[in-house]
Specification:
Number of helices of chain B: 13
CATH architecture of the largest domain in chain A: 3-Layer(aba) Sandwich
Number of domains of chain A: 2
Oligomer: heterodimer
Strand order of the largest sheet of chain B: 2-1-3-4-5
Shape of chain B: elongated
CATH class of the largest domain in chain A: Alpha Beta
Largest sheet of chain B: 5 strands, mixed
Distance between the termini of chain B: 21 Å
Helix content of chain A: 25-40%
Largest sheet of chain A: 6 strands, mixed
Helix content of chain B: 55-70%
Shape of chain A: globular
Number of strands of chain A: 14
Number of helices of chain A: 10
Number of strands of chain B: 5
Largest interface: A-B, 28 and 24 residues
Number of domains of chain B: 2
Structural class of chain B: alpha/beta
CATH superfamily of the largest domain in chain A: P-loop containing nucleotide triphosphate hydrolases
Order of helices and strands of chain B: HHEHEHEEHEHHHHHHHH
Chain lengths: 295, 334
């Protein structure tokens, strides 16, 4: 696969604050590329520089090998994290409005069907539910049949059903070989949708790769979970156990599940509520960015 | 410029305005209420102050000093006899006094004129009476261009300036920036949309109130329409300066009030600036509303033609070009 977007040493300062500090990466054509990071990590600033909304202080962004310009704005579809639409305009009218901005568009009927907008086409855009609104914003982002689609925290605030429904829509777009750039706070979402991710913190990339490769690289163990009251405190100092207590639970990091369970049986720990899970992207995220609350 | 994109934004903005029933009603109802309010309030002729136009130096006529020191008479210097006589005809001046010759003009249908004549004559009459006749100009005839001008000003400043600032604050502009739409296409659509809506609403209000109150109109409706279009355009262009960069509705509101209130007070919406200090009259010339109202009154009350008001049209056009250049050059989507 060839690269569709190349970013080289991107820097952005806001009034003396360095929001993005020398970020470089390239995005393969037809892939889903995820940007993860805690609040204030610089991911939205990075994405908005890619989208052409804000101008970088330094650095180079190339779309299909050329600086981003009119061609990019014509071929890119963008779904912002927070956006308002003109008031007193109906769903069908807003699709019509945006379709007239572009020289080449997808049939509006097809978008209405794909994003399930048919039931509320005549509704004022201010009276949509969260899920309906996100589906409309996605339809607007797709209206010019874009080659590259930016989705900035698209499922924030949605209920689990609406989120799963949205993932389905994103997977449909992926199947059309379109390039997707996704920012999200939901690790499950990134794991489910992204082919490659970068994790950012303090304006820099701190990890990059496919979700599975990153998990393999950083974790060689699974986690045994037990209720804290059922695990004697004497086990905390046992050098054979890597044990962590939090929120009434004990998590035991184990690279040999059989040996760990034998040890628990030997110490007469009841195993009725035992759970075993693999390390997740959320574990990796917390390990890399820290567990303390960010301001 | 992409005409298709321009028309798309124009159409969306028109829909927004026409569907915002509260704003639309207020744009129509407010001027109608003001016009009717003043038509009834002044229908009994409640003004008691005498106005005397004075041409020449007062000390030239012996015995005039006593008259000039009488209370409740406003003496207004006039530039020429020819321009002041029509004001006596229309009861805008109760008397015109030429000090060099001792001549005075009063309207023989004016009670105020008669009383002033008696006061002027005193014991000995060395003045030469000359009479004119003409219909009285009611306050409401004089007021209508001011009220409509004020409504246009508020609608232009808040309807474009405030709306663009709100668009910027809530992210509408950011969303539009991500499309091939250019700033010129976007701003042109805002200007044209507001221009035709204001022209339509103002024409409707004028026609409706005219049917019921019946204004004096001595000039050409076509010339008046030209003043309406160019005056409205200049005030919309002024609002583009406010809209250029601000993203706080509170700041925009403060700035718009800072511009609109002095403009309303100094442009002669409610009262004539005739007789006010020179500096105030000069300061009023910086406002497009002053030129719009003066031109409209000249057409409606004095029957002025296109040539007579051409300087005011040119000033408003020059202001429009200046405001639009500053507004467009400093415009930021975010």
């Amino acid at each position: 696969m060839s690269s569709i977007l190349q970013v080289d040493n991107l820097v952005k300062h806001f009034n003396g604050v360095q929001a993005v500090n020398g970020v470089s990466f390239s995005i393969e054509r037809g892939s889903c590329f995820g940007l993860l990071g805690p609040n204030g990590a610089g991911k939205t600033t990075t994405v908005e520089m890619l989208e052409g909304i804000i101008t970088p202080t330094r650095g180079d962004i190339r779309y299909k090998g050329e600086p981003t310009g009119v061609a990019f704005r014509t071929e890119a579809g963008i779904m912002f994290q927070e956006t308002a639409l003109q008031e007193f305009i109906r769903v069908g009218e807003i699709l019509e409005l945006f379709s007239r901005f572009y020289p080449r568009t997808r049939p509006i009927d097809e978008l209405i069907e794909r994003c399930a907008l048919g039931e509320f086409l005549d509704r004022d855009v201010r009276r949509l539910s969260g899920g309906q609104r996100q589906r409309l914003l996605l339809a607007i982002a797709l209206i010019n049949d874009p080659q590259i689609v930016f989705l900035d925290e698209p499922t924030t605030g949605l209920d689990p059903q609406a989120r799963r429904n949205f993932w389905q829509l994103v997977n449909d777009i992926k199947r059309e070989q379109k390039t997707l750039i996704l920012t999200t706070h939901y690790m499950e979402e990134a794991y489910e949708l992204c082919d490659e991710i970068i994790i950012m913190d303090h304006g820099k990339i701190i990890a990059q790769g496919s979700p599975r490769a990153l998990l393999k690289e950083h974790f060689d163990h699974s986690v045994i979970c037990l209720p804290a009251g059922e695990v004697p405190e004497s086990l905390d100092s046992d050098s054979r156990m890597r044990l962590h207590r939090a929120n009434g639970q004990v998590e035991i990091l184990s690279d040999n599940i059989t040996a760990s369970i034998e040890l628990l049986i030997a110490r007469e720990v009841p195993l009725t509520h035992l759970q075993i899970r693999s390390r997740t992207l959320e574990d990796l995220f917390l390990e890399l960015t820290g567990r303390e609350l960010r301001s | 410029m992409g005409f298709r994109r321009f028309l798309a934004v124009l159409s969306a903005r028109n829909l927004e305005f026409l569907r915002d029933r509260s704003a639309l009603s207020w744009n129509i109802v407010l001027p109608v209420l003001i016009v009717f309010g003043f038509a009834f309030a002044f229908s009994t002729g409640g003004q008691t102050l005498f106005k005397v136009g004075l041409f020449g130096q007062p000390q030239q006529v012996p015995g005039i000093e006593r008259f000039l020191h009488l209370k409740h008479i406003q003496f207004i210097p006039v530039e020429s006899i020819a321009s002041a006589i029509p004001k006596v005809e229309r009861h805008q001046l109760d008397m015109l006094l030429e000090t060099a010759s001792g001549s005075y003009w009063i309207n023989d249908q004016s009670a105020n004129g008669y009383l002033l004549e008696q006061l002027l004559a005193g014991g000995e009459n060395r003045f030469h009476k000359q009479t004119v006749s003409g219909e009285a100009i009611r306050y409401v005839d004089w007021l209508i261009p001011g009220v409509l001008g004020m409504n246009i000003m508020f609608s232009a400043l808040f309807g474009v300036g405030y709306v663009i600032v709100r668009y910027r604050k809530n992210g509408v502009l950011k969303r539009l920036k991500a499309t091939p739409l250019t700033a010129f296409e976007f701003l042109s659509a805002q200007v044209v949309s507001r221009l035709w809506l204001i022209v339509a609403v103002t024409t409707l209000v004028y026609t409706g109130t005219n049917l019921l109150v019946g204004f004096r109109m001595y000039g050409s409706y076509l010339t008046l329409f030209l003043v309406l279009v160019i005056g409205t355009f200049s005030m919309i262009c002024l609002s583009l300066i406010i809209a250029a960069r601000l993203s706080s509705e509170e700041t925009a509101n403060g700035l718009l009030n800072m511009i609109s209130w002095p403009m309303m007070l100094l442009s002669g919406v409610w009262f004539s600036l005739e007789g006010s200090p020179e500096i105030i009259r000069q300061a009023a010339q910086i406002f497009p509303l002053t030129h719009m109202i003066e031109a409209a009154r000249a057409i409606m009350i004095d029957g002025a033609g296109l040539w007579d008001i051409a300087p005011r049209l040119l000033i408003m056009l020059a202001m429009s070009v200046l405001f639009m250049t500053i507004g467009a050059r400093s415009f930021k989507w975010e």
